[in-house]
């Protein structure tokens, strides 16, 4: 008992408070979203708000259970839990129930459970345990192993297929970054995203041209003017010849010609570099050529690998396409409901957009619409603020750990909350494409509520007992 | 335990190492702030700056109303209408707008009970009290007329019009297919469809779904909290106009089709008739059949279960989905391949003493004059002759091994469209089966089989399977002396369009035109020849029909009767395959049916009433053992 009260004394009560407030706010908004004159009692168990109350109570029980476990438990059983979650993800592909085209749910009586939610927790633990056994995450081998730990559940989830959940697993790269992942990996990832978006908006040819110009500028900045002129001259001459041959003799399309010209110019150019025994221009050229190849891959992947509706969703987000009744219907309705909230909102239970069933998934993925419509800008900022508070609190807690295990786990929790928070709210207001992932503690549903509660409370438990782990 | 395991490391060194990346937390912190700034800026913009999202102060909402286009019509090759649309009406209800009304009268108009009314109302309310939902689907135009007059007395109810398929004649059900509500699985895969939409489920309706359906339109209305329409949203900027579906001109000759179905009445089997010069299918009959009108509207699911439960399987399209051993009709193929390979000549003579004998093996034959040449062997369908010919094909010294010769033999068959789907523009076509070298290798051991092992292929029996469609196509190839177009059932998409380019491409089979002549002579002899000819029942005085009978062995019961033919001999207009299941020899049953159809198609009338009566009266019960 002495130990338990000790734990309660060291529990981070601010976080617990935030958690409680968010759950209650979520519950009230679910009530508003599916409000129905025939079932006005918020405790009516036949309605989603009644069920959500049960889920919340179960979450409270879960939190208490986590608090009374020994805090070494999670460390020693990390791999076991990870293995178990992979097993569940495998099982769900076989005996799971197909809902909306994805085999992502176990059906247990009247409840459904989503193992990918539990998988996030398990992956966070396993990754933290792995990093704890390493010096840091800067080496290539560590990166590769860590990536494998993250990718295993991702592959299984991709088979369901549940692309929303797949995206959330990228949150774990924040952990790797904090633990020493090479900064270049990070820069490459950011560049990849920027190039991806630019390619979609501007097309392959202008972006490729831009990359070439950029390479020449960098070359000039690093290798002196005279060399730059000579190198650029060699490149331009070879590239020009290749361009003319491709255009007028082989009748290729523009994108193909540019690729061919750059490759041919590159071969001559590399020879030139070899003769001059230079290092830096080779690196620049390697970056350029991989960049251009990447552009072609993006172009191909976007049109051939993504499903048409995913393609459309991204185009809508980029403003390249408007489809207010087809793929863009959700977003358009979502924008109307949030936008019509104005400064102070229409008042609790007075929202109209969400109640007419105009906004789909209004109590789950689009729960923020109800917040935006009924509580307006003020309410939206309050909810955003609560999340920022929680995230910064988690960050502070992670930084006060003396073991890599707890810190890495804490960063995993932080990363997942950050991605869910930004992607979910972002999609309802059109800064992210429509990706079906829940808003932590707000969205209706047991699996996600319990998944997030488990994530959070294991971290709280580890934090409360952090002195028992020696750094 | 953890503390003991890590305490061996100097703690301070650990701390120093971990701190190397500690300053990265500032960047991560910045990420949170940036994310929050992006979201709040955007929220500020859409909630405070941009007024367009606040549609109006009166809490207006959008209501998209789908405009359903009329589905394309289907005509026959002579421009006669086969399938058209009839208006049908869905009764919708918005529960919150209903108030007390005379439910007795309402139920009387709709012909439903009080309890039925309450259960429908409950369903509607559980969907949404404010949004419209379907109260009753596809009410008839008579009911609609009655209801329309009194609709003002039933607040909250309104009618949305849809169209239903109607058929000018109760024929061609397998070919045309039917239309039904789209299932949930497809809705998640194909974004065009929404719950309650109609989609072609089989036949032309399915394979030409995209052309027939047209494109739905949508009108977006502004509605207030009481769901009253206030006008169009954004001046119709986001509305789309419905595009009606394209009309199709089928290759079917509706009269021939109807006549074929009539002749096949009380029999199980199928007929495929093709115009050789184009590959256009003139008639596609599968018997037993059903009235396509049965699978329309509210009665559809009920009738569908009934048809599905029927033991005679009326939903099964035998013309495309049944694969039979082709029997003696297949001798034509072996004759052609033998000639092309130069291992037999039209004058080759093979003797026959009541069958083919090689060692302990005997393939029986009927009694006829011996020896015969190729032409006689085709018209009298001599088993022995073709066993010899087939052996010559496989034991051809030109090839390194018997197996290589077999591969070449198979290649000719594939070029004729056997063993693969032909690619007709109808769903669910069967590929049939031509055994491969590896199949026999697996069965007998690698290269350990000989011509005699597979000798039944000589007479179209054994592991070989072909659909009636493939057999009709074979008849078309022979009629064309070596080439064909993929058989198809639609010749025009849209009012002046053409068919899919797939069907305009000519396929060459690799058998030279001159090699067809002796075989065709034989087929002519089978129908028009003297004693011993197998198909004299198909003879027509005015037109030279070339044909070949066959019997498909049926391990489950009585054999199936087959007849393939084309006519006239010169400049053929029609190629046909007729299958009558459990009818025994081809000459007795399938041949007269083919002959009558050819007469009907080429002359437009039936002079041989006695023959027609004979066929119409013929009742062949499906074999009980099947």
Task: Describe the fold and architecture.
With 471 residues, chain A is mainly alpha-helical. Chain A is 71% helix and 3% strand. Chain A is built from 19 helices and 3 strands. Chain A is globular and about 75 Å long. The two termini of chain A are 26 Å apart. With 626 residues, chain B is of the alpha+beta class. Chain B has 3 domains: 2-49; 63-250, Penicillin-binding protein 2a (Domain 2) (Alpha-Beta Complex), CATH 3.90.1310; 254-292 and 316-617, Beta-lactamase, CATH 3.40.710. Chain B contains 22 helices and 20 strands. In chain B, the strands form 6 sheets. In chain B, strands 2, 3, 4, 5, 10 and 16 form a 6-stranded mixed beta sheet that branches. Chain B has a 5-stranded antiparallel beta sheet with strand order 12-11-20-19-18, with helices on both faces. Chain B has a 3-stranded antiparallel beta sheet with strand order 1-8-9, with no helix packed on it. In chain B, helix 11 (254-263) runs antiparallel to helix 21. Chains A and B meet through helix 9, helix 16, helix 17 and helix 18 of A and helix 1, helix 2, helix 3, strand 1 and helix 8 of B.
SSE order of chain A in H/E notation? HHHHHEEEHHHHHHHHHHHHHH
> What percent strand of chain A?
under 5%
Which regions of chain B contain 5 or more consecutive residues with pLDDT less than 50?
Answer: 1-17
Q: Provide the domain count of chain B.
A: 3
Average pLDDT of chain B, to the nearest integer?
A: 85
Short description:
The complex is a heterodimer of chains A (471) and B (626). Helix content of chain A is 71%, strand content 3%.
Overview features:
heterodimer, A: 471 residues, mainly alpha, 2 domains, three-stranded antiparallel β-sheet, 3 strands, 71% helix, 3% strand, globular, B: 626 residues, alpha+beta, Penicillin-binding protein 2a (Domain 2), Beta-lactamase, 3 domains, six-stranded mixed β-sheet, five-stranded antiparallel β-sheet, 22 helices, 20 strands, 35% helix, elongated, disordered N terminus
